[in-house]
Automatic annotation (TrEMBL):
<dbReference type="InterPro" id="IPR016160">
    <property type="entry name" value="Ald_DH_CS_CYS"/>
</dbReference>
<feature type="domain" description="Aldehyde dehydrogenase">
    <location>
        <begin position="20"/>
        <end position="489"/>
    </location>
</feature>
<dbReference type="InterPro" id="IPR016162">
    <property type="entry name" value="Ald_DH_N"/>
</dbReference>
<dbReference type="InterPro" id="IPR015590">
    <property type="entry name" value="Aldehyde_DH_dom"/>
</dbReference>
<dbReference type="GO" id="GO:0004029">
    <property type="term" value="F:aldehyde dehydrogenase (NAD+) activity"/>
</dbReference>
<keyword id="KW-0479">Metal-binding</keyword>
<keyword id="KW-0560">Oxidoreductase</keyword>
<dbReference type="Pfam" id="PF00171">
    <property type="entry name" value="Aldedh"/>
</dbReference>
<comment type="similarity">
    <text>Belongs to the aldehyde dehydrogenase family.</text>
</comment>
<protein>
    <recommendedName>
        <fullName>aldehyde dehydrogenase (NAD(+))</fullName>
        <ecNumber>1.2.1.3</ecNumber>
    </recommendedName>
</protein>
<keyword id="KW-0520">NAD</keyword>
<feature type="active site">
    <location>
        <position position="253"/>
    </location>
</feature>
<dbReference type="GO" id="GO:0046872">
    <property type="term" value="F:metal ion binding"/>
</dbReference>
<dbReference type="InterPro" id="IPR029510">
    <property type="entry name" value="Ald_DH_CS_GLU"/>
</dbReference>
<dbReference type="InterPro" id="IPR016163">
    <property type="entry name" value="Ald_DH_C"/>
</dbReference>
<dbReference type="InterPro" id="IPR016161">
    <property type="entry name" value="Ald_DH/histidinol_DH"/>
</dbReference>
Length: 505
């Protein structure tokens, strides 16, 4: 059967490789459950070859003048922008996310980060510092590239994640072997080709294909100096544990169960819009989602009414239609997982179902594309009267499932304690007109990414990373570059005096 996309395999030595193993898998269009392409799993010898390619390319790439590296990466950002809609269509096919999102967010925010880090290194961002100790002695520091780095991505923002990892990695002079999620691999070799077209030399950005075993082999590879991982907490724990054996650098961008706090004086329309964004954008498949929405008792009824009005404006359907803003979930296993949480919320947690539920969405039966009935479609779901110990409130669902939790208006102290009562600490946000109070609350929240009166924006300039089990390190912003270099400090003594303790020897 001919599929919409040609087969994909690994990419190294500056070209697409032929299949290096006999096993393969298919990537599936989540809107219809139909296959999109055959993907050849990269064998262990193929992974070794990709790492060897990256190792060979490292000395020349790390020695390339910063301004020249910057120029090449800026060109890649320009190509990404020129091919935005074509790449967005691929992402829409692979992830199921509506084209209205992928064409305005996914490629754009990846290209922004590439441009940001290219400009940063071109503008002296890799300079070290000089510390004068005495008139004739000083310390200088240099920032040195790490070597071959592994990037392992999740499926929710495939090309954005690939760029958020490879942009600072390559800008700092490292080379990369990247493994996309097996659920969304299509972007990976396209990105490799775009880098090559921009002038990135062979071996600097490489791709291997496959599931967890490919990621595990790459993580423990002795020639890999750093692993940058995005995925679930449980997988991140395995990856960090394996990397620790080789004392590798790690960046871990993991899951969350973030608190979205509505304070009693909040502009209710703004707060409802924030809660919608924090739960239903990308069909709820966003790591920073604010799925625990804390609402004061005084405005609970009004808040719920406005939420129900807003939910009616979610437009599910043809994912290529620019008016659609809600797609299916990414895969069958994920669809089944999200449905099981919704059922658990109703049957076991006994939360009150405000809207949605586990049934197939009503619009599906009359949709013009009959294949959509096989897709992984769910209905936006809101539970209310939730309590802190419910499973739907405690565990990351990673789907369009909002939990409303109420609190006594005057008890902000216990509200903050409840918001912090979780092992994860990725994001948090506060809605209020009282900005002094907003900063006081934000200051006490145990999360690495926080917002006041907005939700979800994550520009290139903003360093993002989780606290607690949500991760280690940050991506983006000035601090994002530091994660891809190692420091060397040199003390220079112009007096040429050897410390007396040695002079006596
Ligand atoms: P997973 O942890 O299931 O997978 C992430 C990646 O790791 C995939 O490429 C996967 O391969 C690979 N992998 C699986 N097992 C191993 C292993 N033992 N060693 C190395 N690699 C392995 O996460 P999901 O793909 O399900 O992504 C969703 C999760 O990602 C959510 O928890 C979400 O919160 C989090 N996330 C965090 C972000 C952040 O910035 N903090 C941003 C986006 C998502 P494969 O899938 O091919 O089997």
């Amino acid at each position: 059967m001919s599929l919409p996309y040609p087969p994909r395999s690994a990419y190294y030595d500056g070209k697409l490789q032929s299949a290096s193993s006999t096993s393969s898998f298919q990537t599936i269009d989540p809107a219809t459950a139909k296959p999109l392409a055959n993907i050849h799993t990269t064998s262990q010898s193929g992974i070794d070859a990709a790492v060897a390619s990256a190792k060979k390319a490292f000395p020349a790439w790390s020695a390339t003048p910063h301004i020249e590296r910057a120029r090449i990466l800026q060109k890649a950002a320009a190509i990404l922008r020129a091919r935005n809609d074509e790449l967005a269509k691929v992402e829409t096919h692979d992830t199921g996310k509506a084209f209205s999102e992928t064409s305005t967010v996914d490629v754009v925010t990846g290209a922004d980060v590439l441009e940001y880090f290219a400009n940063m290194v071109g503008g002296g961002g890799l300079n070290g510092e000089t510390i004068q100790l005495r008139p004739n002695a000083w310390v200088y520091t240099t920032k040195n590239a790490l070597g071959v780095c592994a990037g392992i991505g999740a499926w929710n923002y495939p090309i954005q994640i690939a760029l958020w990892k490879s942009a600072p990695c390559l800008a700092a002079g490292n080379t990369m072997v990247y493994k996309p999620s097996e659920f969304t691999p299509l972007h990976s070799t396209l990105l490799a080709e775009i880098y090559a077209e921009a002038g990135v030399p062979p071996g600097v950005f490489n791709v291997v294909q496959g599931g967890g075993d490919v990621g595990a082999y790459l993580t423990k590879h002795p020639d890999v100096a750093k692993v940058s991982f995005t995925g679930q907490v449980s997988t991140g724990q395995k990856v960090a544990g394996s990397a620790a054996g080789g004392m590798k650098y790690v960046t871990m961008e993991l899951g969350g169960k973030s608190a979205c706090i509505i304070l009693p004086d909040a502009d209710i329309d703004q707060a409802v819009d924030g809660a919608m964004m924090a739960n239903f954008f990308s069909t709820g498949q966003v790591c920073t989602n604010g799925t625990r929405v804390f609402v004061p008792q005084s405005i609970k009824a009004a808040f719920e009414k406005k939420l129900l009005d807003k939910v009616k404006h979610i437009r599910a359907g043809d994912v290529s239609d620019p008016n659609t803003n809600f797609g299916p979930l990414v895969s069958k296993p994920h669809y089944e997982k999200v449905l099981s949480y919704i059922k658990h919320g109703i049957q076991v947690d006994k939360a009150t179902l405000l809207c949605g539920g586990p049934e197939k969405p009503a619009w599906l039966s009359s949709h013009k594309n009959k294949d959509y009935q096989n897709g992984y479609w769910v209905t936006p779901t809101i539970f209310t009267d939730c309590t802190d110990n419910m499973r739907i409130v405690q565990e990351e669902i990673f789907g369009p499932v909002m939990s409303l939790l109420s609190y006594a208006d005057n008890d902000i102290a216990s509200l903050i304690a409840r918001a912090n009562n979780t092992d994860v600490g990725l994001a948090a946000g506060v809605f209020t007109k009282n900005l002094n109070l907003a900063h006081q609350v934000i200051g006490q929240l145990e999360a690495g990414i926080t917002w006041i009166n907005t939700w979800g924006e994550s520009p290139a300039e903003m360093s993002v990373g989780g606290w607690k089990l949500s991760g280690v390190g940050v991506e983006n912003g000035r601090k994002g570059l530091e994660a891809w270099v190692k420091n060397k400090s040199t003390l220079v003594d112009m007096g040429g005096e050897v410390p007396t303790v040695f002079a006596k020897l």
